[in-house]
Amino acid sequence: MAKQENCDDQEYKARSVALRLLARREHSRQELALKLRQRRLESSVISMVLDDYEGKGWLDDSRFADIYARQRIELGYGPLKVLAELLQRGIHQSPSCLDELSDADWTRNARLLRKKRFGFADLRDDWDEKARQARFFTRRGFTANQIERALEVSESDDS
Q1: Number of other CB atoms surrounding residue 61 within 10 Å
Q2: 17 & 50 share domain
Q3: Does 92 share its domain with 108?
Q4: For residue 68, what are the domain limits?
Q5: How deeply is 23 buried, as exposed, middle or buried, from its count of CB atoms within 10 A (0-12, 13-18, 19+)?
Q6: Three-class SS of residue 42?
Q7: How does pLDDT run across 26-55, given as a tens digit for each residue?
Q8: Kind plus residue range of the DSSP H or E element containing 8
Q9: Helices marked H in 38-102 — which ranges?
Q10: Contact yes or no for 18/47 (Cβ under 8 A)
Q11: Where does residue 100 rank: exposed (0-12), middle (13-18), buried (19+ CB within 10 A)?
Q12: CA–CA dist 28, 63 (Å, integer)
């Protein structure tokens, strides 16, 4: 009898913890499973609960990926960083919002970020500053081509 109560206890705890976490924000299945494992719940119980929540539509990796990617894009991150962060969270397909953006859109985002962060000072003769800004954009996950085009813009071009 004690084992049955323990199993019910684990399932109840897994369901309540998962639901509380999902009420705060979207999670990927991998993130949620990790958080439940950290609470020392059995893997079989975790899988059962997460399968049930996916069936009910409460847990959806594609919805999570889309929301997460949109938030990171709004914060000024590039495609490489967003995809890498999604991979870390167990998402192995590119969300549609990333696929919809062209290279020109990403370059425009990098230019807007540059204007906001650094301004459009002419960098042709200031290699140190150009390298500093390039490192910033690299850390943000933009491609080399997007960075190069964003750094080409100067105040005289921005009219």
Answers
A1: 21
A2: yes
A3: no
A4: 61-100
A5: exposed
A6: coil
A7: 999 999 999 999 999 999 999 999 999 999
A8: helix 2-24
A9: 43-56, 61-74, 79-88, 96-99
A10: no
A11: exposed
A12: 9
